Fold:
Amino acid sequence: MTYNLKVFEGRRIEEIEVEAGGRLMDALLKVDPSRVDTPCGGKGLCGKCRIKVVSGRVSAPNERESRLLSAAELSAGIRLACLARLEGDAVIDLPERGEASILSAGPESVIVADPLVRLVAVTPPASSLDDQSDDEARLLAVIARKLSEEGAPELAPRRVAFAALPGLARHCRGDQAVGAVVADGQVLAIAPLRAGARALGVGVDLGTTTVVCRLVDLGTGERLGSRSELNAQRPFGADVITRIAAAESPEGLESLRSRISSQIASLARALTDESGATPEDLIAITVAGNTTMLHLLAGAPPDAIARSPFTPAFLGRRVESAAALGLAGHPGCAAILLPGVSGYVGADIVAGIVAIGLHEAKGRSLFLDLGTNGEIAFGGKAGIICCATAAGPAFEGAGIEMGTGGVTGAIDAVWIDGDTVCFSTLGKKPATGICGSGLIDALAVFLDCRLVDETGRVADEDEARALPPTLAAMIGEGPRGPVIFLDRARGIYLSQGDVRAAQLAKAAIAAGIDTLLRVAGVGVGEVDRLYLAGGFGSLLDVRSATRIGLLPAELADRVIVVGNASGAGATAACVSRHRLDDCDRARAACSYVELSSRPDFNEAYVERMMFPEPE
Ligand code: FES
Structure:
């Protein structure tokens, strides 16, 4: 039996047939995976998948739902889509979605085009009674000559890949011009040469939250465009641990794999369309991502990454057939998965290191990529040590009651003007939640004006009486205890629990920095530069980050914001084999420090839980 579910979202109305007893979340995700926010992967833990039941029959709230929603919310029809089940026809209202603002720009530098993957246009000679050599030998000889003329004799292939043999037999029988895709010592595909054929590549930053693809011309190095979207695997959870759990069954793994490969394929297709190219012009896709994301793209079970000793199935650079991974492009398009350092310091960090040139830089620099995991590298051309801290998704908006990603309407900056706390929102829209940079600013302001003390406790009634009335009026009671309202009219606040979640996250990152510097035997004053990478790092106010103790105050004037370094590194590796080899060199220069087994990390973590005293 099925029921009719009518879904309102702003001015959009949609009707869906839903199996009797089915979860609202499953029905919504079938229509559009970005429909509901599901940071915990639909396990009824995060309370983020809120929808409003306007009318109709839906199962009664169970104990978990009653815990996550206040009585007022329940009586207003607010329900959790992953727990509520349909028991008859119903009408629901979805909050209007903000548009995600995703950072695609990174540290750009001029790159000389010298790609590993090439489209070689040749005309293999026909065989004759005088030359009865096989098609493969004649093709390889003519390709070697052409590459030598182009100044890249070392790229001459040694064999034709098994998958390209049908093309070999079909297209190398006479004096016909063919385009051969060559990479990694092999001819990957052979096809008749099309008029106007181009050689294009895509560099992919495959993040847990977002996916950014940039199209480049492999002949000139010119950047032709970029596209980004929220990662299509998000309905399975906000962080790598929930994704790993979702991939435990073969069906779950396949579902995650196919979602991400089709998403990259469709972004790449949109980019080639926009640039007036054909999908067959795409011959290389270079992917930087954390180790779990690369496993999921490859269809390799990532479960061992979540268990001690956190061993991934693979870390080295791989050159695969893009078609075998479900990606778009020329039949011989190569997919290059960049190398990673460990289960939690992945190819995204290696690509970022290459993009900023840390592996060949003089002096000693810190490189921080802040996301659901805080990945940290420290060093320079003398060597790099790196670690990952389980910061949790608080700075990505998950685990915070009114938390949200970097979408329109998110409070992204908070400051104080006299005795009034002010804020701005992304897209200058009415506030709908608080994103990571807003959370850090708000904490810094609350600490400065004593709404929160150094232990992270929200001021009580007695303490509030001592504050200016505008500040005292911000304190209130939320569904789960004391809160500080930023926008009382819209019900946007930071709760005591949110302050604790942010304390845990910032303590993990600060303790990671302390531990790396201790391992290196270097004081914080001796650090020359602090590179901040990632979308969150780019929005971060450095003064606020040092005020709450997330970043060392001594380095405030040495911070360099580098944006999407991982995407810039992936694109550079696509265009230049020197940069691609740099990824291997950078990976070899990195040694991984496992924090979970270090008592000094645990001590630093406890110490860093407190907020710093005001200066
Ligand atoms: S509570 Fe429903 S997705 Fe987390």
Observations:
- The chain has 18 helices and 27 strands.
- The chain has a mean pLDDT of 90.
- The domain at 118-192 is CATH 3.10.20 (Ubiquitin-like (UB roll)).
